[in-house]
Write a structure and sequence with these properties.
Its cofactor is Mg(2+). With 559 residues, the chain is α/β, with parallel strands linked by helices. The chain is built from 22 helices and 12 strands. A 5-stranded parallel sheet has the order 8-12-11-9-10.
């Protein structure tokens, strides 16, 4: 049932007309694609946007996470971690089953009862202050793959309700077998629901065992020895195996709450137990609208408002940096006498920070960063630091005849500085990567720069220093017939899985190399090795026809 409902909601979001509404009106179009590390918007216009109202979407998770982190930053550390696990044999579930049915046959009943229990626990902890006055709280439902859901409540208590001593802890938390005389009902519940294992030497095959030890460190040794033991799962267990619990919450049920409400509310006397949910509900509260970092000025305005006290205008909000300028620039001022030098060094640091986020300092309207201050050789230095494995050099001796011919031909062009492009063709498993590693190791051993790229991240990761082609060559997001990209000096370039790449990406690299070398020949001055298999995956053209997909392949390129 839930899968059908979720599928219908996903179908609504996948409708292009609805996507237009979500993207343009609710998320400011292209800005929304720049969140969660999509700093260059590589997926702009290609993915389906799920709003924060869709349970489990990235935006929903992000909103909940930011809310929880804000509570901790504002109110301090947590005081209580309360867990409630769904029990398929709750009386409220079993009494509604038809003859021959099990709780697994009626997920609708289980879900409704669990939801009612969740709301009831929320009311007990937050509204009724079971542990005292709550300053802030958060909760999450974990849906297990092979079991029923369970709930985690995180409570931050008011200063008047903080736990300050041993007596306070013993008042609300117990990790011992209860006294059967004082609590006639509680011992049965603890033995049934709150006993861990047994594991360890008593049961080495328990699911919690990891490397011969219990992942949860049971049995706990720092427990009082009062002589009580219970026989569970054919083993005698004592206090060391008790999972911490709150006695009052463990003994609660919807029936006991019904009794309590009848004691406290005179109007509750008019309703039967089965009529109770029809007249008592919980109201939802609203919260402040979430602001995504990709929204730019609106997000930074929210940040400033959270840190600047008593601003009188938008201009006064922008003066927060002046208060900290001397402290932040102290190191540069001590080592550089010129104010211009200090300014350029600060701009350079800002440029590096912004670049690490995938953006350009020139887009922010700051002062001009002089060419002398730019770190042109950072990537070049990184490429020179790429080492080689001696094992890869030994691969040269084990190449077959065809591989040796290709290796010698390519290496001769690298050594003699003769630019030429090669294509290594072969189905998967024909040792193309084996040849690439041998070439990379040999060129690196000669002190030259050789870089390895691939269309996919997985293919790039198995080669030394491998990166995706878009990252390595700075290929523009929007490819056209006149696009160019940024590039550095190398002697050998390997581009694997090129069959998956649209031809415009390769042509963009070709135009960039021609511009650098001042030559109109294809890849002039560079030894290019393309590899791939056109029998496998072709370039992805969204909703493209067979002709459009074929036209996007490298086979249709002018190269």
């Amino acid at each position: 049932m839930y899968i059908k409902i979720e599928s219908m909601r996903l179908d609504w979001y996948s409708n292009p007309e609805h996507q237009k509404i979500i993207r343009a009106d609710l998320y400011q179009g292209i800005l929304d694609t720049l969140d969660f590390g999509e700093t260059r918007g590589l997926k702009a216009g290609k993915r389906v946007i799920l709003s924060k109202d869709f349970l489990g979407s990235d935006r929903d998770v992000s909103c909940r996470f930011m809310d929880a982190m804000t509570l901790v930053a504002r109110y301090g550390r947590l005081d209580y971690f309360v867990t409630m696990t769904c029990n398929p044999y709750w009386p409220e579930i079993t009494e509604l089953l038809l003859p021959g049915q099990t709780p697994q046959d009626r997920p609708d009943i289980v879900a409704r009862v669990y939801r009612a229990k969740l709301l009831d626990l929320h009311d007990i902890l937050i509204n009724k202050g079971h542990f005292g006055k709550v300053a802030a709280w958060a909760h999450v439902t974990e849906f297990q793959k092979r079991g029923l859901p369970h709930e985690h409540f995180l409570l931050i208590m008011d200063s008047s309700a903080k736990l300050s001593g041993l007596d306070d802890y013993d008042k609300y938390i117990s990790a011992e077998l209860p006294d059967p005389i004082k609590y006639p009902v509680l011992p049965r519940l603890v033995c049934k629901h709150m006993m861990h294992g047994p594991c360890g030497t008593l049961n080495t095959k328990c699911a919690c065992m990891l490397n011969g030890n219990c992942r949860f460190k049971y049995p706990w040794q720092l427990r009082r020895e009062d002589g009580q033991k219970v026989f569970i799962r054919n083993k005698w267990l004592d206090n060391r195996w008790v999972v911490p619990y709150n006695p009052t919450l463990l003994m609660r049920s919807m029936l006991t709450e019904f009794f309590m409400m009848n004691r406290e509310d005179p109007h509750a006397h008019r309703y039967l137990y089965r009529e109770f949910p029809e007249h008592y509900t919980w109201s939802k509260s609203k919260k402040l609208v979430y602001v995504n970092p990709a929204e730019g000025e609106m997000y930074y305005l929210r940040v400033l408002l959270n840190h600047v006290r008593g601003p009188t205008s938008f201009i006064s909000l922008q003066t927060v940096f002046d208060k900290h300028f001397d402290a932040m620039a102290e190191d540069y001022q001590r080592t550089h006498a010129s104010d211009k030098s200090v300014l350029q060094l600060v701009l350079k640091d800002i440029a590096n920070i912004v670049k690490s986020m995938g953006k350009d300092i020139n887009n922010y309207g700051l002062l001009e960063l002089h060419e002398s201050a730019r770190d042109y050789y950072r990537e070049l230095t990184e490429e020179r630091k790429i080492g080689y494995d001696e094992e890869d050099l030994k691969r040269i001796e084990t190449l077959n005849a065809e591989q040796s011919y290709g290796f010698n031909e390519i290496l001769a062009h690298v050594v003699n500085k003769k630019g030429k492009d090669f294509f290594v063709d072969g189905p998967g498993g024909t040792a193309k990567t084996y040849l690439y590693k041998a070439l990379l190791a040999k060129v690196h051993s000669l002190g030259e720069i050789a870089i390895a790229t691939a269309t996919s991240g997985i293919a790039a990761s198995i080669m030394p220093g491998g990166r995706t082609a878009h990252s390595r060559f700075k290929i523009p997001i929007k490819l056209g017939d006149n696009s160019i990209c940024n590039f550095t000096k190398t002697s050998l370039i390997i581009w694997d899985e090129v069959a998956m790449t649209r031809r415009q990406a390769v042509e963009t690299l070709d135009r960039s190399l021609q511009d650098i070398m001042g030559c109109i020949k294809p890849f002039r001055g560079k030894v290019m090795i393309f590899g791939g298999d056109f029998r496998q995956v072709l370039p992805v053209v969204p909703r493209g026809t067979r002709a459009q997909i074929t036209d996007a392949t490298l086979l249709r390129s002018y190269i």
